[in-house]
Amino acid sequence: MNTLVFGISLAALLSTTSLLIVLFRVSPLLAPTQAVFAFFLSIFMSVTTVGTLLFMALWKYVPQHHTWDTGKLTSISLRQGIFFGSATTILLLFHLLGLLTWWIGVMIYGVFVLVEMALEH
After folding, report:
1. Burial of 3 per CB tally in 10 Å (0-12, 13-18, 19+)
2. How many other CB atoms are found less than 10 A from the CB of residue 21?
3. Rounded CA separation 102/82 (Å)
4. Where are the domains of the chain?
5. How far is CA 38 from CA 22, 26, 68, 116, in A?
6. Which of 33, 64, 91, 117 is 20–30 Å from 25 (CA)?
7. Which of 43, 119, 28, 33 is nearest to 85 (CA)?
8. Is it the case that residue 10 has pLDDT exceeding 70?
9. Are residues 20 and 42 in contact, defined by beta-carbon separation less than 8 angstroms?
10. pLDDT tens figures, 82-91
11. Is residue 4 a contact partner of residue 74, using CB atoms and an 8 Å limit?
C-alpha cells in the first residue's frame, strides 16, 4: 500500500474513533464549550479524511482522459476532502444556530463545488 494512502487511512481511523469518543463520552451538559468545539473538530477531521479516501477511490477507478500520477491524485482528493469537510462543518454549524434550511444547505455545498470547479486546471 502506498505510504500516503496508509497515512490517510490511519488518520481516517483515528479521527473517526475520536468522533465516536466525543459522541459517546463527552457530556455537553458538564462542559458545553469544550464539547461543541471537540465535536466540530472531530467531525471536520473525520469527514475530511474519509472523504479524501472516497475521492481517491473515485478518481482512481472512474475512467477519465486525465493522466494523473499518484501525487496529483492525492492532492486533488485531499483538496476535495477538505472542501467537503468544511462544507459539512458549516452545514452543522448553521443547523446548531437554527439557520439551516434545505436551500441554504444546497447553496453551501454549491459554493464549494463552484470553487473546486474554478480550481480545476
Report:
1. exposed
2. 12
3. 22
4. 3-119
5. 7, 9, 36, 27
6. 91
7. 43
8. yes
9. no
10. 999 999 999 9
11. yes
